[in-house]
Design a protein that fits this description.
The chain is mostly helical. The chain contains seven helices and no strands. The longest helix has about 55 residues. The chain is globular and about 75 Å long.
């Protein structure tokens, strides 16, 4: 555990890079998805009129549909960015530490689960700080629900995604002896997550018939 803390402190470039990446993402997200909660109540639309205007009602519905899809797109983009910003850097960083780990593991100095657990614990502060900074700026800017409970849930989900992405990065990096091979295989591992995440295609449209039956277990 102590050595994991020391190694984390000796690599401040990774922490700075993650913070800079987060600031750049925030700078693009805020103007792109600014205040998407500008919905209109179409059920009460133009109630003062003697004869309802179908065109106005349809226009209101169309506007709300656009806002809704933009809101979903913002949430999907946040999830994808958290995945990529924490997955690929972990793949690269672990490759430089892998020879030391293999040598010490061969000497029976510790078990694999001890190394993995202490490594993850040592990185918890930065893995919790980065999504917190992102959520603090992006959540009110996009216009999500003004509730502390919803804010906490949103942050908790992103924090768990950062943990999962980091763990997947260690897993992929440990499966290859070459950094080039690990980085080249990374998009393949992310492909089913992005494709079947529910944004590209409605999962209810995937039926249990061939060839879609092959995707059900994913």
């Amino acid at each position: 555990m102590f050595r994991s803390w020391i190694l984390a402190q000796r690599e401040p470039r990774i922490t700075r890079a993650k913070l800079i990446q987060t600031c750049i993402v925030v700078a693009f997200l805020i103007p792109t998805f600014w205040q998407l909660n500008d919905y209109e109540n179409c059920d009460d639309f133009d109630t003062t009129a003697t004869v309802p205007d179908p065109a106005s009602f349809a226009s209101c519905k169309a506007f709300n549909d656009v806002v809704f899809h933009s809101m979903v797109g913002a949430m999907y983009f946040l999830c994808v960015m958290q995945m990529f910003l924490n997955f690929l850097p972990t793949v690269i960083v672990f490759q430089s530490e892998k020879p030391v780990f293999v040598r010490e593991r061969a000497s029976n100095m510790y078990d694999i689960w001890i190394y993995a657990t202490t490594k993850m614990i040592a990185e918890i502060p930065i893995m919790l700080l980065v999504p917190l900074i992102l959520v603090i700026f992006v959540y009110p800017s996009i216009g999500f629900q003004d509730s502390l409970k919803e804010f906490s849930q949103f942050y908790f989900i992103l924090a768990l995604m950062v943990q999962a992405a980091t763990a997947m990065g260690y897993f992929l990096s440990s499966a290859f002896n070459s950094e080039t091979a690990a980085v080249a295989f990374a998009p393949i591992l992310n492909l089913p997550l992005s494709l079947l995440g529910g944004y590209m295609i409605n999962l209810n449209s995937i039926k249990g018939e061939f060839p879609q039956a092959l995707l059900e277990w994913l």
